[in-house]
Amino acid sequence: MYETPITVVGRIVTDPRRRDTGNSDVVKFRVASNSRRRADDGSWVTGETLFVNVNCWGRLVTGVAASLKKGDAVIVVGHLYTSEYDDRDGQHRSSLELRATAVGPDLNRYITRLEKHGVPAEPAPGVGDGFPGDRDAETVGFGERCSSASTRPGADQTADGDDGPGADIGGQVEVEVA
Questions:
Q1: What residues pair up with 96 in beta bridges, in sequence order?
Q2: Where is the segment annotated Disordered (predicted)?
Q3: How many Å apart are CA 143 and CA 146, to the nearest integer?
Q4: What value does the CA radius of gyration of the chain take, rounded to a whole number of Å?
Q5: Phi first, then psi: what are they for 63, rounded to 5°?
Q6: Nearest partner of 45 among 167, 173, 172, 174, judged by Cα
Q7: Is residue 161 part of a domain?
């Protein structure tokens, strides 16, 4: 099987589902990625959307299952391949699959804290120093939601204040640490 290394930037469009395969667990979800360009009138135009099924194995299972949900903006690195199968009606189908080697939140959209598997997070340098978008940080345990997290105001704007690429996907996020 030929595999192509690739990075996909997009938004999770299905709830990540954890499944036991017998030998190990896998987390699967679908990502939508689209391009945006500036039109002649200065507005942003959304291009075609690419949908990719993402499969996470090994240590990624715990981190992804505990941290991400439908609607989150993510960056996924992995190996792209085509999965072929017959559907319920006997039709031969294929889909793009991405075996992830790394998954994380898109930091163009979010301000977040990191926590290693099983190790409490240290306060981030600069938190509480008056930077726009600061929020009270609290240490949370493994698998608990940090509900005070939000995006930094204006994170989806260019320097001139116009909506930038991905402006249509901004907003608040709850960060779940793993």
A1: 82
A2: 117-178
A3: 9
A4: 18
A5: -65, -45
A6: 167
A7: no
CATH number at residue 60: 2.40.50.140
Residues 103 and 15: their CA atoms lie apart, in Å, by 15
Q: Does the model's pTM come out above 0.85?
A: no
Whole domain around residue 27: which residue ranges? 4-105
pLDDT over 90 at 176, yes or no = no
Has residue 112 been placed in a domain? no
Determine, yes or no, domain membership for 141. no
Provide the token pair at 21.
């395969």
Residue 127's pLDDT band (boundaries 50, 70, 90)? low
| Cα angle: 25, vertex 7, 81; to 5 degrees | 60
**What average pLDDT does the chain have?**
76
How does pLDDT run across 60-79, given as a tens digit for each residue?
A: 999 999 999 999 999 999 99
Residue 84 lies in a domain: yes
Report the number of distinct structural domains present in the chain.
1
Structure tokens at 133: 């978008």
